[in-house]
Amino acid sequence: MLDGVSIIGLTPAGLLLIVVLMVLTGRLIPRATYLEKVREAAQWRAAYEASEKARSMSDSQTRELLEVAKTSERFLSAVVETSTHIIKSGDS
């Protein structure tokens, strides 16, 4: 924005104009606003980390439940197969 401008040669009115333009374009903000944004960013980061931790726990529980479901399916398939074999052979 000020690449070719010598600040030493500017008048007080010129410097004021530059400061006003910087405020209006959002390049210069009050310290309180900056600190508020920093706190907000820290809160969002903490919320994101808590969310990721919960998602990780949920994923591990889902994996465990999937293993239980696979084991149950194998057991029930074996029971049905055995029952079918017994019925076909007439060994009841």
Structural summary, described in words:
There is one protein chain. With 92 residues, the protein is mainly α. It has a domain at 31-89. 79% of the residues lie in helices and 0% in strands. The chain has helices spanning 12-25, 31-89. The longest helix has 59 residues, at 31-89. The model has no long low-confidence stretch (mean pLDDT 88).
Key traits:
92 residues; mainly alpha; 2 helices
Topology:
Elements: H1 12-25, H2 31-89
Structural class given helices, strands, pairing?
A: mainly alpha
What is the chain-wise order of helices and strands? HH
| Biggest beta sheet summary | none
CA distance, first residue to last residue: 92 Å
The helix content is: over 70%
Assembly type of the chains comes to: single chain
Q: Hey, roughly how much beta strand do the residues contain? A: under 5%
Arithmetic mean pLDDT: 88
Shape: rod-shaped
Spans of 5+ residues with little confidence (pLDDT < 50)? none
Q: What is the strand tally?
A: 0
Short summary:
Helix content is 79%, strand content 0%. The protein is an all-alpha fold and 92 residues long. It starts with 11 loop residues before the first helix and ends with a helix.
